[in-house]
Amino acid sequence: MKIGELARRTAVSERSLRYYEEQGLLVSTRTPSGHRTYPERAVDRVIRIQELFAAGLCSGKIAELLPCMRDEDGGPSEAATPWLVADLTRQRARIDEQIAELVRTREILDDVIVAATGDHPVETEQAAAARP
Predict the structure, then answer these.
(1) In this structure, are residues 36 and 2 in contact, taking their beta carbons and an 8 Å threshold?
(2) Residue 33 in 3-state DSSP?
(3) Which residues are CB-neighbours of 21 under 8 A, at least 6 positions away?
(4) Strand runs (DSSP E) across the chain, as ranges?
(5) Residue 91 in contact with residue 82, Cβ under 8 Å?
(6) What pTM was estimated for this model as a whole?
(7) Mean pLDDT of residues grouped by 10 in the chain (132 residues)?
(8) DSSP symbols for 65-98
(9) Does the first or last residue of the chain, that is N or C, have fewer Cβ atoms within 10 Å of its Cβ?
(10) Can you give the pLDDT at residue 131?
C-alpha cells in the first residue's frame, strides 16, 4: 500500500510515517518511480508505534523495543532480553510516577472547585452533562 493509504488507515500523518522510517521504526520499499510502499503488516506496526509514543517512550527506546514485540498482538517475541526488560521496568516506574502526580494535581483541582462552588467536581460534571 502507498503512504497515503497507510496514513488513512492508521490516522497517522504521512509526515509522521516518514519520520518513523527515518528513525528505523518502519520500513518501506520503493516503486521504480520512487514512491514508498508498505506491506499490510505495517498497519499493525504503526498502531504499535503510536501506542508506545502514547506511553511516553521516545523513538530511540521504541526502536530498541520493537524487535522484541510481535506487531499483530503486541506480545513479546523471543528477542526480548533481560537488559530490555529491566529498562522497560524503569520506564513503567516513570509512567507510574507521572500517573501519581496527575492524581495529586487532580485532587488539588477538586479542592479548588469545592472551595469555589461548594460542589464536588464529579457532581459539577454530572450537572453540566445533564443540561440540554
Answers:
(1) yes
(2) coil
(3) 27, 28, 36
(4) 29-30, 36-37
(5) no
(6) 0.66
(7) 96 96 93 93 93 89 83 68 82 91 94 87 61 59
(8) HGGGB-TTT--B-TT--HHHHHHHHHHHHHHHHH
(9) C
(10) 58
